[in-house]
Write a structure and sequence with these properties.
Helix content is 71%, strand content 0%. It is mainly α. It has one domain. The longest helix is centred in the C-terminal third of the chain and has 18 residues. The two termini are 24 Å apart.
Length: 90
């Protein structure tokens, strides 16, 4: 598993726009779930990328997925996305 030291050249800005497009694929719930998991794993591995996630507009989109529980797996992943920082910074 990568850490901040081994992922020094990784740029979240390059990956967030395509992940945001995938997260908007309302007709493909599996793709939305995978995109949400990718964003979650990126923030978990690189906590400094959280600022990039906020700037990309992912937070309102993930909130929308959380509040419209059309796909329970996606809502659950959205919950974990917001639950994770509370475990680190509390």
């Amino acid at each position: 598993m990568g850490t901040e030291e081994t992922l020094g050249g990784f740029s979240p800005d390059q990956f967030l726009p395509p992940l945001m497009q995938l997260l908007n694929m309302e007709y493909n719930p599996e793709m939305m779930l995978l995109a949400c998991r990718c964003i979650y794993n990126m923030v978990e591995a690189l906590p400094n990328s959280a600022a990039n996630v906020v700037q990309s507009g992912a937070i309102p989109l993930i909130c929308a997925k959380l509040f419209t529980i059309e796909y329970i797996d996606l809502a659950e992943q959205g919950f974990f996305f917001f639950f994770f920082p509370t475990q680190i910074y509390v």
